[in-house]
């Protein structure tokens, strides 16, 4: 090899490394550095350490009058509080950072960064218009382009706002521009967020293939960046797109995966979003009860996080499940709540969805005028925001309302307008539904030929849509198979590489790399020496403040520890309160200082015949008997004045059907720090049966006294006759007297028979104090369809209908705490007792736990609610003269044995 060729060969080998070094120098000199994954993790995992370092940087910057360092420190401290959801504190630091850089042209990028984080804090506070005002960079459009990574984040934030409002075309344009600006400057979270939002925009624009592409891209980037905590959001929305394409198995899989990741990495909003979409999937399969449970669980999470758009979505999904149950009153209440939230946050797209759902409800209720008004409002909003997919849906629903109301010609006009728009948008699923409706219209008009032609088009298009769904499924499986094949091929090839393949060129490269590194090390050493003096000066300043900072840190840590302990105790108390409030023992209502029912449990709602949501916000005047209302009002006023703390009162309440419920109410007040009434708890016990039997017993007692008086008179007459016989000498008169006495004796025996018959009537009738345990066990088992529950035998026992809660509690214990999947209930009866044995195949319990399980006190260190339920079960059966026993099974699980007095037992009290 000649010298000339050797020089060219070496230059070709060195060129990539020289370019890499040039890129390294550029990255050092460029002020817009991307946020590293490590920095983001430090803010979340080690907030105290990050805050201390930022505080020291701020002090040093203030001493050296370095605005850039001070701004960086303030932004970091604000972001720490932003991650902890302490929004007011975060805004304090961001405001300070804004004031530092607001009038400094040289720090323009820092000024815009402050605006960006102030917008994020406002968005988290549900102040969406304020967030948009901070993010609106139209007047700064030219200057912001100099801050590349910041420009990217502003575009993503604006897209997030426009997605909420419903401007999907703006979302798409902003995000496509943001992707062009990414390069290496955007942080991992923003990159994933960009793809997730873009997928949502394409979803609502009806381009489902593009939506799936960007969701998959977001998921792949999460895997690439090793950020599994970001996986739940794209998975949830990918599952939603699959459900829109009728691919329900895939949709359910992605929702469950998203739920698992959200629970693992503590992403509550993502968890709630997955739950509420699972509720809609349950609605699709007509499992409305489970759908409501999923949605209510999601609502609890959203209320804790305070995320209003999520709450509005859950109200909408609750309404859809209520519509499936034909409970249109509850559905209307939920949609109105959703509409109220969406009006408050300014979500025009969400308002159009709420109006459309109201139209569906009013159409089913026969209120066609209201339904048409809601349909037109939905159409108007969707036309304003340019949501053409929604416009097609609104036209279709207008046609359905007109058709149901009998205006067939108008309905046909709306259907054809919707069909034309669906063709333009290539919405095959929408065209299937519209063609079916048009066929029904022609059939109603008597034009059977047209109806048949349109129905044939509907059937053909429906088959095509199903075929496309199957093809997409097959293509996805092929892609996954191809990816696995390529991975295996690459893995096999990598194993074949051995050390003998290293050539002279590789050794040459290593040599030149060493030379370059040594050269760079010399440059770095000179820079370190130049900055050493500056660092010494900074260290001296920092040392001055370090002792004060350490003391402040220790005090803050102690206070923070006390606050965390207090917060933990409050959370435990709150959980225990909610558990006891919803326990099926008595009716409970939470009363506001204005005498309104602000919270009601299920027992009280069932006693009164209402749904829980209907009683929320009720006033006493609507439900209380007028004669009892004045007494209750006077006692409540005494509570407000502080004269009394609680009171006990017999009170009559009106059920939903108009009948009266007789109850005993125990009211207890709870006051705040200013000794003002915070709220009150009213516990109601149904005493209707007790009053009935008390009155019945009084009647029987009066009858018995009367019969005993008459019987004593008869006996006195017999004794008098006997005395008269002994004094009469005439035998004829004796015969007459004996005849009279015989009649008196027969009369007395008849009286005794009446007393015995009366005694027999004192036995309660079946259904008052005697219940069929087999029927109660079957009813309780209906609430657990996923678990195999076998019930054998039967028996009538001395108890009341509330015994159903015994079976409910013991079945739930076996499933939740014992992890059982099979439960056996054996009922045996004898003359004196009815024995119930409840066995499960769960994990069982230790020997020492068997004696501690009936302890009525709480053990927070072991379990939050240990012993309360089984203690109540034992009290219940003992109240009715029975007993309870718990024993371990030989193989696996637990046996619980209950004894009830049977109907024929002589121990049953009258």
Distance between the termini: 118 Å
Overall structural class, as computed from helix and strand content, comes to alpha+beta
Q: Please identify the top-level CATH class of the largest domain.
A: Mainly Alpha
- By DSSP (H or I, 4+ residues per run), the number of helices equals 35
Count of DSSP E strands? 13
Largest β-sheet summary: 6 strands, antiparallel
- Which oligomerization state do the chains in this entry correspond to? single chain
CATH topology label of the largest domain: Serine Threonine Protein Phosphatase 5, Tetratricopeptide repeat
Shape estimate: globular
Q: CATH superfamily of the largest domain, please? A: Tetratricopeptide repeat domain
In what order do the strands lie side by side in the largest sheet? 3-2-1-6-5-4
State mean pLDDT (0 to 100 scale): 76
In which range does the helix fraction lie? Answer: over 70%
Low-confidence stretches: 1-38, 497-504, 761-767, 856-868
- Our estimate of the beta-strand percent is 5-15%
Q: Could you say how many structural domains there are in total?
A: 6
What is the CATH architecture assignment of the largest domain? Alpha Horseshoe
Whole-angstrom Rg:
39 Å
Q: Any chance you could write out the topology, listing elements then pairs?
A:
Layout: H1 3-29, H2 37-45, H3 47-64, H4 67-83, H5 87-101, H6 108-124, H7 128-135, H8 141-144, H9 148-165, H10 168-182, H11 188-204, H12 208-225, H13 232-244, H14 248-264, H15 268-284, H16 288-305, H17 308-324, H18 328-345, H19 348-365, H20 368-385, H21 388-405, H22 408-425, H23 428-445, H24 448-495, H25 504-581, E1 587-591, E2 596-600, H26 602-608, H27 612-615, E3 618-619, H28 620-623, H29 626-641, E4 646-654, E5 660-671, E6 677-686, H30 688-727, H31 731-761, E7 770-772, H32 773-781, E8 788-792, E9 796-798, H33 804-816, E10 822-829, E11 833-840, H34 847-852, H35 868-879, E12 883-888, E13 894-901
Parallel strand pairs: 8-10
Antiparallel strand pairs: 1-2, 1-6, 2-3, 4-5, 5-6, 7-9, 10-11, 11-13, 12-13
């Amino acid at each position: 090899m000649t010298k000339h060729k050797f020089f060219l060969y070496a230059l070709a080998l060195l060129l990539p490394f020289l370019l890499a070094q040039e890129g390294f120098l550029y990255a050092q000199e460029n002020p817009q550095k991307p946020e590293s994954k490590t920095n983001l993790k430090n803010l979340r995992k080690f907030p105290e350490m990050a805050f201390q370092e930022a505080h020291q940087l701020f002090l040093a910057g203030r001493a050296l009058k370095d605005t850039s360092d001070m701004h960086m420190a303030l932004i970091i401290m604000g972001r720490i509080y932003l991650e902890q959801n302490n929004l007011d504190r975060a805004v304090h630091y961001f405001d300070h950072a804004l004031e530092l850089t607001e009038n400094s042209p040289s720090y323009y990028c820092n000024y815009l960064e402050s605006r960006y984080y102030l917008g994020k804090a406002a968005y988290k506070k549900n102040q969406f218009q304020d967030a948009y005002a901070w993010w609106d960079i139209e007047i700064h459009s030219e200057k912001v382009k100099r801050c590349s990574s910041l420009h990217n984040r502003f575009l993503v934030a604006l897209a997030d706002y426009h997605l909420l409002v419903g401007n999907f075309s703006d979302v798409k344009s902003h995000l496509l521009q943001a992707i062009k600006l990414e390069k290496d400057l955007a942080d991992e979270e923003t990159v994933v967020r960009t793809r997730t939002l873009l997928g949502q925009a394409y979803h609502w624009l009806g381009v489902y293939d593009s939506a799936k592409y960007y969701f998959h891209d977001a998921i792949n980037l999460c895997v690439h960046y090793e950020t599994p905590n970001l996986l739940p959001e794209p998975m949830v929305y990918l599952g939603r797109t699959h459900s829109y394409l009728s691919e329900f198995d895939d949709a359910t899989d992605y929702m469950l995966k998203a739920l698992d990741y959200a629970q693992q990495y503590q992403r509550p909003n993502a968890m709630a979003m997955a739950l509420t979409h699972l509720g809609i999937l349950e609605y699709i399969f007509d499992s409305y009860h489970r759908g409501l449970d999923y949605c209510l669980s999601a609502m609890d999470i959203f209320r804790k996080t305070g995320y209003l758009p999520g709450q509005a979505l859950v109200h909408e999904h609750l309404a859809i499940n209520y519509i499936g149950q034909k409970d249109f009153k509850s559905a209307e209440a939920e949609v109105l709540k959703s509409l109220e939230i969406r009006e408050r946050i300014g979500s025009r797209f969400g308002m159009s969805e709420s109006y459309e759902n109201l139209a569906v409800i009013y159409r089913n209720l026969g209120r066609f005028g209201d339904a048409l008004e809601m349909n037109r409002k939905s159409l108007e909003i969707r036309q304003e925001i340019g949501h053409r997919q929604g416009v097609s849906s609104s036209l279709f629903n207008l046609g359905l309302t007109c058709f149901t109301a009998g205006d067939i010609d108008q309905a046909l006009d709306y259907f054809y307008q919707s069909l034309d728009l669906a063709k333009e948008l290539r919405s095959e699923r929408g065209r299937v539904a519209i063609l079916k409706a048009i066929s029904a219209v022609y059939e109603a008009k008597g034009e059977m030929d047209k109806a048949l032609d349109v129905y044939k088009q509907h059937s053909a298009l429906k088959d095509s849509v199903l075929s496309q769904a199957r093809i997409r499924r097959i293509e996805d499986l092929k892609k996954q198979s191809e990816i696995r094949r390529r991975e295996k091929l690459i893995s096999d090839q990598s194993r074949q590489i051995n050390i003998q393949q290293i050539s002279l060129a590789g050794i040459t490269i290593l040599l030149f790399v060493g030379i370059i590194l040594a050269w760079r090390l010399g440059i770095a050493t000179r820079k370190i020496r130049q900055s050493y003096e500056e660092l010494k000066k900074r260290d001296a300043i920092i040392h001055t403040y370090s002792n004060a900072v350490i003391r402040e840190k220790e005090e803050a840590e102690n206070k923070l520890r006390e606050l965390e302990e207090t917060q933990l105790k409050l959370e435990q108390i709150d959980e225990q309160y909610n558990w006891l409030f919803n326990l099926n023992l008595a009716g409970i209502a939470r009363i506001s200082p204005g005498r309104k029912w602000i919270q009601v449990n299920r027992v009280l709602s069932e006693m009164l015949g209402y749904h829980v949501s209907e009683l929320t916000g009720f006033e006493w005047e609507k439900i209380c008997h007028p004669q009892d209302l004045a007494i209750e009002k006077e006692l409540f006023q005494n509570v407000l004045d502080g004269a009394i703390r609680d009171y006990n009162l017999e009170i009559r309440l009106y059920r939903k059907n108009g009948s009266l419920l007789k109850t005993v109410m125990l009211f207890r007040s709870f006051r705040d720090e200013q000794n003002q009434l915070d709220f009150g708890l009213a516990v109601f016990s149904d005493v209707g049966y007790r009053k009935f039997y008390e009155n019945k017993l009084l009647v029987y007692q009066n009858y018995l006294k009367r019969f005993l008086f008459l019987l004593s008179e008869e006996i006195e007459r017999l004794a008098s006759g006997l005395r008269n016989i002994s004094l009469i000498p005439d035998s004829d008169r004796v015969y007459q007297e004996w005849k009279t006495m015989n009649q008196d004796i027969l009369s007395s025996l008849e009286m005794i028979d009446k007393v015995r018959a009366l005694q027999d009537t004192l036995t309660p009738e079946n259904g008052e104090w005697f219940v069929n345990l087999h029927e109660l066990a079957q009813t309780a088992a209906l609430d657990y369809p996923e678990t195999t529950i076998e019930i054998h035998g039967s028996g009538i026992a001395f108890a009341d209908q509330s015994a159903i809660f015994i079976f409910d509690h013991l079945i739930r214990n076996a499933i939740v705490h014992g992890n059982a999947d099979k439960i056996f209930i054996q009922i045996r009866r004898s003359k004196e007792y009815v024995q119930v044995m409840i066995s499960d195949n769960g994990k069982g319990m230790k020997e020492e736990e068997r004696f501690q399980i009936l302890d009525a006190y709480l053990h927070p260190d072991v379990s939050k609610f240990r012993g309360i339920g089984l203690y109540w079960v034992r009290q219940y059966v003992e109240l009715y003269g029975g007993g309870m026993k718990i024993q371990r099974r030989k193989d696996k699980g637990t046996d619980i044995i209950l004894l009830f007095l049977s109907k024929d037992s002589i121990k049953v009290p009258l």
